[in-house]
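SEQUENCE-TO-STRUCTURE ENTRY
===========================

Subject: a protein chain together with a token-level encoding of how that chain folds.

Sequence line: the amino acid chain in single-letter code, read from start to end.

Question of interest: how does this chain fold, as expressed in backbone structure tokens?
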Amino acid sequence: MTTTLPSLTTTLELSPAPGSWVTVCEESRLTPGRGVAVLLPDGRQAAVFRDRSGRLYAIDNRDPFSGAQVLSRGLVGSADGGPFVASPLLKQRFDLETGRCLDDDEVAVAVYPVRTK
């Protein structure tokens, strides 16, 4: 008889479309205050973050100002109590909860629901 042990690894999933979830990485790959770039099944990239309090966020990895896939390498901070990531290129800040650019009200990035499994 073979016994299967429960997995000790927690994975992260995000929802790139309503009703669908994809596994993107192991939770242990996230360092508080830093991001990880993940490739979605349709070829898009997402940036996944854990803030210093342990909350998880996922946004589009493409910086809309430069077109570069770099938001996962941005600096995580907070403004008015809300978490943001600042683009490493031009320093625009994007709210991690809404995707709204804090420096230009007409610009936003996609936000994805994220969960552990």
About this structure: Residues 92 and 103 are 6 Å apart (CA to CA).
